[in-house]
Design goal:
single chain, Immunoglobulin-like, 6-stranded antiparallel sheet, 41 strands, binds zinc ion
Length: about 950
Amino acid sequence: MLMKRSSLLATIIGLVLINLMMATSVHSQFPQPWDMISTVPYYLAAPIIPTVTGTEITFVRPADVDSLPYHDGMTMREWIHYLNARGTRYTSFTEAYYLDCQYLPDSVFAWYPELLTEGRMINLDGNPVPYGDYGDDNWVFCEATPAWHNFLLRVVLLAIDAGAEVMVYDTPQGLERCFCPYDIQGFRDYLKNKYTPEELAALGITDIDNFDYGQYLRDAGWTASSLNSACNSGQTSDIPLWDSEWIPYQEFQLRQHWASLVDSARVYAQQRYGRDIHFAFNLSGWGGAIWKLARWSSFTWIEIFYDDMIYPQRELTIPLVKVCEAAGRPLNPMTSPTEPFSTSDLGRLQIAELYSNGGIGGPGISSQPQNQLMIPYFQLVQFHPELFDAQPDGEMAVLYALASARHDISAEIAFNGAGYLLSDLHRTFDALFAGDGDWMDDELTVNKMSRYRTVFIPNQAYLTETQAAVILDYIAQGGVVLSTGQVALYDPDGNPGNWSTLQSLLGGGYQTYGSGKVYAWTQSFCLDYAAKRGVEEPEAENIRNTVAAVLDTLVPPWIATDFPRTVIFERRNNPGTNSLIYHLINFNYDPGTKQVIPEQNHQLTVPILETQSADSLAVTLYSPDDYAGHILASPSQMLGQRLLYKRATSNTITMEVPELKIWAIIKIEPGKPLQRPQAKLQLADELDEVHVINHQPVFRWSYSDPNGLSQVAYQTQVGTSYLWADSTLLWDSGVVISDTTSTTYAGLDTLADGTSFIARVRVQNNAGSWSEWAQLGFRMNTPPTVPQYLNPAGGILTTDYPEFNFFKCSDVEDHVDSLSYNIAIYADSNLTQLIYDKRGIRKPVGDYDWVVWTADTLLPDNLEIYWRARSFDGYEFSPWSPVVHFYRNFRNDPPYPPILLHPKDGAPTTLHPSFTWENGGDPDGAVDVCYYNIYYSDD
Ligand SMILES: [Zn+2]
């Protein structure tokens, strides 16, 4: 059958005859994730190209390309060139068992008339099977027919010609209800190869060369309708030969079909273009189904809906991503959260967990602006391939045995449960993939297992004989195995396993074997944990505690941290660059706000590589998250933020992770450790720090950085003690993003006089490192007391240089003798007309209680003089004393002329006039008595 199809191929397409045995070595060279970014995804389309902005961003939807390759290679080629010109590589996506003609030009059947004559699936009643309810010309096709098989191949070859690098097939399983002549013949051949005539006779088949399974079923009373009902309800056990022979034949036929098609296409791409073509199949579902066609896949392409990825109610993802990588088929999930990225963090969480676990691709990005919030996540991947050029390096492994998954759905659920159980215990883990020898090769070896000190085996009851032997060897050589539930009981066919030593070791409790240790829980903790995690939290916690008690005893944990359980760690390394990568993902998702709640300032102690030295490491934190507003990361953030670390032991280091929004990546590599910037703190505008007079003191610091980096932020605090834990915090500026080097006290409390305080400042450089706190003690000055008993105060002063005096003042900080005084003299009670300001007055030396100042300037006379005094301690004046006043009259001034009233000048008068005048006043005021002289004359 295979040969027949190949020669048909050569005839129809005109190819050089393809040697199907010439298998390419694609399987052994799976693209690394960073390759896949450029080679795979229409999902990753243009948004990861920084030069493409706004509406130019292209998202290639499956519907756009579904129909293109069938007949119009030129159009598709142009399309691919368009994408390539924007740095985007191209995946073609097509259906594998039907043509949905609502997307197809009608001409497809003119180009490929054989599709209608002999390509369609034929039901038990002999009629072609329509596809869905989409009207005419929508048919289900049969991959056993050369017409359909070759049509599919033709599509691939056109896609290769046009430049596509990946073909993804949707619905590749087909339906197993076709009774076309090719299937009838195929089933005949299958049975003939499998059984002797005697065995066939025992099955009731006497004439195999003319055996028609369709007729056989019709003779037994089956119709297309009753067959469909039985199949759709899963009640197939009554259909003769169905489960035992027909389904295995369909499986065989399906795999022959894909093997032929994929190999032909790969040979074509190599021979014609010297390049590769990758394949993937949309195979979803439990029971290991995704591995059904994995042999021909470059990566795993399945539909996952991420709306349930809210921690901790989760099904697949992290363990699944890991097992796909372990099987050499990195996961490229087809679907994404239905929540828009603008309103929900789910999509960002998905990218974080996908790439941190070795997955590729990711959700689609449309040109809608809000979905561009995803771009920094892809940019981080694109701009920092070194962060992803790393292999899994967890502290333990979880075994995934495909034979178990195929037999028992609970094995797969328990595998996921084990993954989350370990994640929740902050244990990093990798998946160990063990093929079943059928769908996937069994490549488990002691070497692969021995990379891990500990291997967890959750409910994997079906193993190959090789796997049982490898596990036993691993234990004998010093491995630690922890198992839950039923483990290692059967071979892939379901027969009891012939490996009693291992079975007895895994039968329950603690045992040693060789240099190794085994702890087997008969309870299905991992299965239970998958179900109860987050839903029945007390029970989940019991499981965590029970497992952790044993695990921590047998295998000390690698990571010590005060991050909550909702933060999950992944560990990878790159031996080539001697670098170690820790991924931190924060699943603390709030379904109400649909945002992840950020974590801040957590301690993290992690082991480094044996090849690294704890004294000379460069530790850098990368994140696509802008912590402040959770908007697009800035280019400088993409540069990474150097972290300080401390050597904890010879092979562990401790650091503080300042912030974690969703995803942070810590790279630890050989290098010069980061040194802190430094600040020196002082007070601005003060004579000294023990006589501070400004109640809003200004703190000024000098900034220096050993790496020449500049200041980007600072924080200032004022408290009451160098023991800051006990200190009363009067002011905390908080972290201020600024390169300024001074700040003014802005605490609500007034800094009390005569009290000491501590100020401190720390500065941050543009690599994110904080200095130590620079500290400065200071004391608020107390002003001296106010002068009292001012004299003169009242009365009239007649001396020309009067003496001013008052009682001496005191000061808590200084001796009284060091005080000086200030007298101010005014001409008005409102103190607006300053006459004299005398400073620097000293108390007489000696045992005097009075300060005396004799005026050293002649003050105005005949005036009410107002004056006041204050003291000065060299830093600060006391308040003013109350104002006192006195009248000054030291000089006897002549009186003013009288004001003549009568008789008036020139007016006629009597012989005996009466002279009247008014007192003109006296500058000396009422103090003087006036005498008058009168003169009169006739000229
Ligand atoms: Zn068929």
